[in-house]
Structure formats: C-alpha cells, structure tokens
Amino acid sequence: MDAPVIKKKLGLKDRYAAMTRGLAWDTTYQPMEKVFPFDQYEGIKIHDWDKWEDPFRLTMDAYWKYQGEKEKKLYAVIEAFAQNNGQLGISDARYVNALKLFIQGVTPLEYYAHRGFAHVGRHFTGAGARVAAQMQSIDELRHYQTETHALSHYNKYFNGMHQPTQWFDRVWYLSVPKSFFEDALSGGPFEFLTAVSFSFEYVLTNLLFVPFMSGAAHNGDMSTVTFGFSAQSDESRHMTLGIECIKFMLEQDPANVPIVQKWIDKWFWRGYRLLTLVAMMQDYMLPKRVMSWKESWEMYVEENGGALFRDLARYGIREPKGWKEACEGKDHISHQAWNTFYSYGAAAPFHTWIPKEDELRWLSEKYPDTFDKYYRPRFEHLREEQKAGRRIYNKTLPMLCNTCQIPLLFTEPGDPTKICHRETEYKGEKYHFCSDGCQHVFEDEPEKYVQSWLPVQQIYQGQCFKPGVDPTAEGFDPLLAVLDWYGMNVGRDNFDFEGSEDQKNFATWRGDPAPVSATAAQQGAQS
C-alpha cells in the first residue's frame, strides 16, 4: 500500500501569489490594452506589474475571516450601547452635532470611496493592484454600513440625522466633501489612488479619524469609538495601499515623477480645504476637547507628513504646493469656519452656539498668538447681541470658491484681517477662488471645474425650489423655500442650540436643570 502524499502547505508569500497573480491571465481574443484602457491614458508608464507588492499579503479567504470577527464584536457593542440608553451618557447634547456633521459629510464619502475602488479594481492591468483595490472597496462599503448603524441609534432621539443622503446631494456646505470625491472619481485610476489612498488616507486621514474617535471617547460615546476602531484597523491597510501606489509609480519610470507631483500638489490642497469642517468640529463642537486643530496639524501633518516627503525626496518628490500656507492656516481656519456656520446657522441641519467662557479660555491657551487678537472679540460681540435678543442669522448668499466650493471666508496669507479672493477669466466668464491653491487647481483643468454645481448659483437660478413654487408670489421667502427643498425640519434641525429641542429633551431625559430659553430672534425665526 502506497503511503499518502502529504502536500506541503504554501507559505504566506507563495499563497498570496497563488491567490492574486495565479488568478490572472492575459487576454487572447482582445489585446490587453483594449480590455484595460484606463490605466494608460493618464500618461503613467508601468513596465512590470509584478513589482506591485502588498505588505499585508491579504487574501480573500483571510479577509472574510478577519472582518467577520470584527463585525461580531462591533455589533455586540452597538447593541449593548442601545439597550443601556448610551445616548444619556454623553457629556452634553451639543456633542451630537459633531455626529450630525459626521453622518452628513463623512459617511457618504465612504460609499463614494466604495464605488471608486470598485471601478479601480476593474481597470488596473496588474492583478495585485486589482485585488487590493477590490478589498478596499468592500472595506469602504462596510464602513458606510457600520457608521450608519451606529449613528442610527442617535437618530431616534435627536434631530438633524434623518436624511443625510438627500442633504449630501443638496445642502450648501455638503457640496464641499461631495465635490472632492466627485473630482477624484472623474479622474483616472492612478489619480484616484493618489487623491484618496495617498493624499487623503495616508497624509491626512489621521486628522479625520483621530479627532472624531478620540473626541467620542472623551465625550462618552462608546458606540462611535467602537466603529472608529473597527474602521481604523482597515485604515492602516488603506494607508499602505496609498504609499505603495505612489512608490510603485515613481519606481516604474522617471517620466511618472512630474505627473505624480502635480497630483500631490492638487490633492493635498483639496484635502486640506475639505478638512476645514473637521478643524471646526475639533475646536468648537466637542464639549470635552482632546486637542486643538493646531496641535493635530503639527503632530500628524508637519511632523509625520514632513518626514514622509523627506523620504520621498529620493524619488524627486518635494512638499506639495501650498504646504507653507496650510501650515500658517492652522491658527485660523477653525475659527473662521465656526464664525461662518454660526452666521448661517439657519441654513445648516445642525445647531450652532457661542462657546462658553471656559471654552473661550481654552481657545486662548491653544491659540495664544491669534485667538484673543482676532477672534475672541467677534464671539463676545455675537454673545452680547444674542443676549439682547438679536441673534445674528445671515440671510444673504456668499460667494463660493469655484474649486473647493467653500464660501470665501479664508483670509490672506500673512494678513488675517483681509478676506482672500482670487479671480480667473475663462472663455469670457469670471471664476472666483478662496486661495492661490484653488486658483491653480482650476487653471490646470478649467474644463472640469466650469461644470461645478455651485449651491449659491443654483439657488439664484431657481434650481433649488420644489416643483410648483412661485418665487413671484406675495410674501415669498426664498430661504424657507430652499430649506423645504433640502428636506429640513425648520426650527428642529437648525438654528441656535440654546433653547433647541435637542437641548431641552436631553436635559429632561437626564433630569438636569432646565436649559435657558431660546432667544427672541430664534423664536421669531421658528414662528
């Protein structure tokens, strides 16, 4: 009787090769360049796709096992949080507005990323890159689902979370993250990976996830902390894909260097502008603060990002354009953004407020060179106006940047007292920008950005009213008509936090002292 032959178990490297390269083949009925046309038209030259290496060497069977274990733990925590009324354990009802901003502006981006990586996973010629992109596509879909499930618990008790997908398509400030990802999705596959995997995931993602998840932990929101940790364990793999993609392109051909540098310049600046929303959240929307935006920027960008670009210098890559201006802006952008949202609070589906005195002191400590000089006097004036029953709501429409789609609220480099405004003429039309960086991005691809869907222009054109609305009717209020088109519950989703339903209900549930009443201005606006 013959002895049974024991097959030797493949090592990790050989098994990964069998489950990626071993599943690929060259086409015969049609040429490869016709089946995979998208990874060539950008000008990136790839000579050997087998040089693509995944340091994790993750295969699909292992992927399902790891993710399944994480899902069980995550949903057990979410269920326990709900059963124990975890929403009553948060520090302050104001904190929930950070979650509103997250589900409105960040969660939809996970779904956009899922679509983008699914597209990339089809159109790369190399099997290793295709497999890595396909698994990240599944990751992003999972993030979208788990974030929605975790935050849906708060939707039962608080306003401003009931239809984030419609708001993402319509509300003025959400066009900022939407335009970022639609810009990336409409690029080629290599530019998409540079935009999302490298510039956003590798260079800037810590500025997004660390403040949100650390802020959640400090404010008693363990449900959000848990989905954050579950997602962040995937982010380490995503960051690796980003740096691998960049180094792979740079090592394949010297001609790729100027193309990659141009993309890094563009997407660093676009990502920096997008993170203005996170800067505002971190400094103003967390009742218990973790660290300031300035401290986060210095740690995760100036130190870590600076080391990264020093490492990439051997390939001929320098720091992105706008690096100096972005580092200067760490002292200003959160204050300028919150001041803007406070003024336009009637048109945003979350609440705003004036920081309390101890919070103003914290901001003074964290921004010793700028806050007391430029921003504290504004907030003190707005607080006095509110106490006098004149809570300020700006009903005029601001000029938007044609690239990042943020209102022109930022100031000139070196002069925080002067609004920055740049202008370009293209084919007889004038276009406006918040910075040199956004102007340069536009001028490099004007045909792309002249098509931008800008909320203010669309409102003025009458595109943001429901069918049948007559703007010429007597007593017509354009703001209320736009908010109705948004799908907002006026007076519940927006206006000032003081006196809001969220504040009153939260105090009642916890048995706290009755909150202060709404200001006369808010009462008048609600009526």
TrEMBL record:
The keyword Oxidoreductase applies. GO terms for molecular function: monooxygenase activity. It comes from the Bacteria. Keywords: Monooxygenase, Oxidoreductase. InterPro entries: Ferritin-like_SF (IPR009078), Phenol_Hydrox (IPR003430), RNR-like (IPR012348), YHS_dom (IPR007029). Residues 411-453 form the YHS domain. Residues 506-527 are annotated as: Disordered. The keyword Oxidoreductase applies. This is Aromatic/alkene/methane monooxygenase hydroxylase/oxygenase subunit alpha. It comes from Acidovorax benzenivorans.
